[in-house]
Specification:
- The structure is a single chain.
- 24% of the residues lie in helices and 31% in strands.
- The protein has 225 residues and is an alpha+beta fold.
- The protein has 2 domains: 73 residues, Gyrase A, domain 2 (2-Layer Sandwich), CATH 3.30.1360; 134 residues, Cyclophilin (Beta Barrel).
- The strands form 3 sheets. Strands 5-12-9-10-7-6-13 form a 7-stranded mixed β-barrel. A 4-stranded antiparallel beta sheet has the order 1-2-4-3, covered by helices on one side. Strands 8-11 form a two-stranded antiparallel sheet.
- Strand 3 and strand 4 form a beta hairpin.
- The chain is elongated, with a radius of gyration of 19 Å.
Length: 225
């Protein structure tokens, strides 16, 4: 691990150079330990693929003190397996109606639409990071057979709940926004609700499974086309 200065009251901890489930599990393990031991000294923590940004309260500790505490606490990290976090099941209405790029992605992969849906929904994805927008969880890794590059021309408006693929990542758009990912379906479950507790159904380290549903189920769950 490597600790670097990231601002006047922030440090960033690097847990490795590659992104994999074991490294992600270490990041989440560190979040748990630091939340417990340094709660009063921290303002926020932002976990990512292989790093953790720690923002501390300068009125409660200084740079040298927090760095020393981090090194001591991070020494408690154990070799962690990739299996950690909770499993979250998200419903997904896969179709050419709800996923305008589904057919093109299937053609590119030399598969039929049903095969793409099965491959995508059979996988269990790890939440590697949350960013771009509140509730936008970067999930990996997509089966190489259906991995697809971002669109050459991003859409100006991607619908809320769009289930999408970009390279070997997949995600659900939490709100209407621009985006260049390949859209293969829609998820009726809210990915971010500022009035809820917790505000997001997933956090870094969790695992996500998509459950295929039909059009009627999608609408019954509050989905909109």
């Amino acid at each position: 691990m490597n600790i670097k200065v990231a601002g006047e009251n922030a440090l960033i901890i690097y847990f490795g150079e590659k992104t994999d489930p074991a490294t992600s599990a270490k990041v989440q393990q560190a979040v748990t330990i630091l939340e417990k031991e340094l709660a009063e000294q921290l303002i926020d923590m932002v976990p990512s693929y292989a790093s953790l940004l720690v923002i501390y309260d300068m009125l409660r500790c200084d740079h040298l003190e927090i760095r020393s505490q981090l090194r001591k606490l991070l020494g408690q990290l154990e070799e962690s397996s990739a299996i950690s976090g909770k499993i979250v099941t998200l419903p997904a209405y896969y179709s050419t109606e709800s996923g305008p790029d589904l057919e093109a992605l299937a053609t590119r992969a030399q598969l039929n639409i049903e095969e793409v849906i099965k491959i995508h929904s059979d996988m269990e994805y790890r939440v590697y990071a949350i960013g771009f927008a509140p509730g936008f969880a970067y999930l990996g890794e997509v089966d190489p057979r259906i991995a697809a590059p971002r669109l050459s021309t991003p859409r100006q408006k991607v619908p809320k709940g769009a289930v999408a693929i970009a390279d070997q990542q997949t995600a659900v758009y939490p709100a209407v926004s621009p985006g260049g990912w390949n859209l293969i379906g829609l998820c009726p479950a809210p990915m971010f609700d500022p009035k809820a507790e917790p505000t997001m159904p997933v956090q870094v380290g969790d695992r996500v499974k998509f459950e295929p549903i039909n059009r009627e189920q999608f609408i019954a769950l509050g989905g909109q086309l």
